[in-house]
Amino acid sequence: MDAKVVIGRLIRQLREQQGLTQDQLAGQVDLTYQYLSGVENGRENFSIGVVESIANALNCPLPQLVARAFDQGTGAAPVILNPAYFRREVPLPPGMTVEHLETSVNTTQNIVATINANLARGGAKPLMEYIQGNNFSGLVSNVLCDALHDYSPYKHNSHQAYPDLINPKSKERSKPEGLEVKSTIQIGKGGESHNGHSGWHLIACFQIEPKTGSIRFIHLMFAVLNGHSHAEPDWTYVGSKVNASTGSRRTETYNTNLIGTTKLRDGSIYLDPSAIDYKGWRQQRRSNAPPPAFSIFKK
């Protein structure tokens, strides 16, 4: 099929998924809606620069847009976050924006979907069936960290220590703002850590698509948590337990207590109401404080 038709079809699909009209998208990239309509229908010639501008406006970097356009129907196309499900009033780490987060999460979904599509072509099972659950979540965390490194001010911590990412442009050069990232299929549960330190934490909750084995993020939570050594900690020490059946020892682990979990739930920057019913989730705050104005529990 003509490359113009293939790429134009995906541009139209992405635009419609994000609830944009041709007028709105054309305005963002300084094109006429007539020209954009021609691009979407495969009638207009276009330069790489034009497609790159459109791709950036759709939060789908150019290499991914082209790869996805020519991989339609193979199972590689990931689910795109619904912009309407972002709660833009929720505080984010300094320097982070919703757009940084959206691009990074969509990138992560696309990478996992592409891996699974390639496995399917060879008659193999989805990736998650070759990896233990906690290791698969760890892999997703690593991919998400790398995407945030590429598409946000937060960069890999060169010391390979806590936190996962730091913002080198932080005002305090001696102590850059940090971000710890964890991915999980346990929706709304809270945080789990091997150190239980203080600072910004992102818990990214995802579902696994049953047909393709690819992932769909449905809940993203941000909060500043108090470390386990703080006078008012947000972590509970779980310990290092031995599995009675396998004899393997679990790594030293901390889980957020209900106060810490409530902080994270309050900071739900993205929540898919079609997949999550949070009405029955428990809450606890110090000194019986009311929910903050940005909380999902605020009436």
Task: Describe what this molecule looks like in 3D.
The protein has two domains: 1-70, 434 Repressor (Amino-terminal Domain) (Orthogonal Bundle); 79-288, ECO RV Endonuclease, Chain A (3-Layer(aba) Sandwich), CATH 3.40.600. The mean pLDDT is 89. The chain has helices spanning 3-17, 22-28, 33-40, 48-57, 62-69, 98-121, 133-151, 258-266; strands spanning 155-156, 165-167, 177-184, 192-193, 199-208, 215-225, 235-239, 253-256, 268-271. It contains eight helices and nine strands. The strands form two sheets. A six-stranded mixed β-sheet has the order 1-2-3-5-6-9, sandwiched between helices. It has a three-stranded antiparallel β-sheet with strand order 4-8-7. It is 33% helix and 16% strand.
The fold-level CATH name of the largest domain is: ECO RV Endonuclease, Chain A
Order of helices and strands: HHHHHHHEEEEEEEEHE
Subunit arrangement of the protein: single chain
Structural class designation: alpha+beta
Radius of gyration, taken over Cα atoms and rounded to an integer in Å: 21 Å
Regions with little confidence, pLDDT below 50 for 5+ residues: none
**How large is the count of helical segments?**
8
Strand content: 15-25%
Based on the coordinates given, report the CATH architecture of the largest domain.
3-Layer(aba) Sandwich
Give the end-to-end Cα distance, rounded to a whole number of Å. Answer: 53 Å
Q: Please, how many domains?
A: 2
| General form | globular
Give the fraction of residues assigned to helices. 25-40%
What characterizes the major β-sheet?
A: 6 strands, mixed
Strand order of the largest sheet: 1-2-3-5-6-9
Report the average pLDDT across residues.
89
CATH class of the largest domain: Alpha Beta
- Report the count of strand segments: 9
